Amino acid sequence: TVSKVADRLAEHELYAAKYYERRDKHLAAMRRYEYLVNSFPESTQLPQALLSMAKAAEKTHHLETVQQAVDTLETDYADAKEIKEARTVLARAEAFAEANPDVLPEGEGDQEENDPTEMRKYKGAKPQQGGAPAGGGMGGGMGGQTPGTSGMPY
């Protein structure tokens, strides 16, 4: 069914986000969790994704994202086991922000990170005419879509 397919796609996003976390790429992980939450709102993976998003946001000093994740957990998943830990993450993030008011969230003030005209770079990909990477595009049935146009957060 459609809901099972969406849940499998959400599982893939969760896996991808955890991959970034294992490599200390917490901003990329946070964005993958955000994509999962926004793209698969009916997924059974959401409580775990929201907690993980809060943790990644804490590590990148995105206090507002931590707050939003915790608020969503409390509002939409009041019985979720992840709420207690999410509240602890929020308390730590708030304490850090209060003690370090001059620390910017990771990615803010970084021109390349925030420049919407900057196309994401793919390791080993060489631009061809039309902007598609060498090797036949993104694969996976994406229809030859140009990198950066899939709506994915990477």
List the helices and strands and how they pair.
Blueprint: H1 2-22, H2 26-39, H3 46-59, H4 63-76, H5 83-99, H6 111-114
Structure description:
The protein is built from 6 helices and no strands. It has 154 residues and is mostly helical.
Question: What descriptive keywords fit this protein?
Answer:
154 residues, mainly alpha, globular
The general outline is: globular
Question: In terms of structural class, how would the helical and strand content be classed?
Answer: mainly alpha
Beta-strand percent range: under 5%
Q: What is the helix fraction of residues, given as a range?
A: 40-55%
| Ends apart, CA distance between termini | 28 Å
Order of helices and strands: HHHHHH
Radius of gyration: 17 Å
Number of strands: 0
- Could you tell me the mean pLDDT? 78
Instruction: Name the assembly state.
Output: single chain
Summarize the structure.
Helix content is 55%, strand content 0%. It is mainly alpha-helical and 154 residues long.
